[in-house]
Amino acid sequence: MAPGRHQGKRGAKAGWTLAREPESITLRDVYGAVEGNGLFALHRTPPNEDCPVGFGIRPALSSVYARLDDAVRDELAAISIADVLRDVQAERHVAG
Prior knowledge:
Blueprint: E1 7-9, E2 15-17, H1 27-34, H2 54-77, H3 81-95
Antiparallel strand pairs: 1-2
Helix pairs in contact: 1-2
């Protein structure tokens, strides 16, 4: 799903058209195309700098959130759209 090369439509038979083969598109690619921001976010309102916790919470959590986001992105990079499709088809076979 490259920028400018994917198409989406609404309504009956809605969905996306892939710009590349499913084996070459990872869930990290999808995540980057539709979300892009980190999974975790700090509160928009700055904390009270006079508070013993508020004073250091942003730097402490920023580091943790960055490591978590990297770990999630690494996991997503290991799974392709083709992998997901195979899993869906296997579930259908088991349930069928």
